[in-house]
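> example.struct
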């Protein structure tokens, strides 16, 4: 089994910064794509940023230039540096990882971490 544990959420004022971390552990042979998603109340879950195993990245238009995704393959960890936060960034943030365990390839999700940005 594989677990993803997120940390780093919290309450911040508009214009501030937060850094989210997500560490994967368990029976891991390799990790392919990793990503951060968010879900605000009453809205669909949406992709915020993704990063491939080789390091290529993609971002939602709403966060380009403000958020940076990175990963440490040795630690099976993905990060999301969030700068210039806006109230509309308020949401529960989830990490996702596509993990290979032996012959099985499967997506795993973290439990979510709340990010609240006050005006």
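> example.seq
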């Amino acid at each position: 089994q594989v677990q993803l544990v997120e940390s780093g959420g919290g309450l911040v004022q508009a214009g501030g910064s937060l850094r989210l971390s997500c560490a994967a552990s368990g029976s891991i042979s390799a990790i392919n794509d990793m990503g951060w998603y968010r879900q605000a109340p009453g809205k669909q879950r949406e992709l915020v940023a993704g990063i491939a195993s080789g390091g290529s990245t993609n971002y939602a238009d709403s966060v380009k230039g403000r958020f940076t995704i990175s990963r440490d393959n040795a630690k099976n960890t993905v990060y999301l540096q969030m700068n210039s936060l806006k109230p509309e960034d308020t949401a529960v943030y989830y990490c996702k990882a596509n993990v290979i365990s032996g012959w099985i390839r499967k997506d795993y999700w973290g439990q979510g971490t709340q990010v609240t940005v006050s005006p």
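> remarks
The longest strand covers residues 91-101.
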